[in-house]
Input
Amino acid sequence: MGTDNSRSASGYGEGDVSAVISTEDVARQAEALGATVSRDAVRALVEGEPLLELSSLVAGYDAMEILHGIDLAVGAGQSLCLVGPNGAGKSTVLHSIFGFTRIFGGEIVIDGETVTALTPAQKLKQAGIAYVLQDNSVFPDMSVEENLLMGGYLKDKPFEAREAAERVFEKYDRLAARRSEKAGVLSGGERRLLEISRALIMEPKVLLVDEPSIGLEPRYIDMVFDILADLQTSDGKTIILVEQNAKKGLAFADLGYVLVSGRVAMVDEGEALLANPEVGRLFLGG
Output
């Protein structure tokens, strides 16, 4: 591996990969290299006890099994990035944590409580898990403030959502300046900020973020990752993300997971995976 880290684990072997390979070749070679990583190796990367843990999770859609025994663990205030070839099951991991998939086996535990069978609404309100969708999900004809208040639809008392929205405006001047404007006029970066901020209204412990940089100009990508970094370091949020820009995602995250064909093939600290030549050749373009 590119760094000497006794806590890392992988199922990767030896082999040469050309500098430019097709998507099909990436998937084929990654699958040949993949092997299931042990639960002990996954837990060894967590600082203290895991806040969120998946144990032997088998999940998919309808009768189709996509994830085949996923073990994952992340501590309070840590960040984790999932990378891998197309179709590896990265977004399905997020969907499963939040309750969008069918769980065939295994369990999901947060803060010591099993939440496997909870609905998405229960995951948000009771377990403190929020999901920032991959697709543009702002309501363009509603104001910025109204969009934020929509994030508090599960609050027991409406004033609690308004108080949370005010805290967002205090934190982000960019949104405060446009609170009465329609969300449809915001830039791509501002819309992504609004989506992330709306997820904060329920004051979650865990943020699931699906492709935060997708469709954004480079200057906005940096802004979004700065926002996520601040939420982790200043607010103590635990962040799990899937990111198409694997270099950016691994550089940001404390922990990195390589998924291959619905299984965890490698786990390590994010910077160590970023420096790993096998990961570089297959997923980082060099």
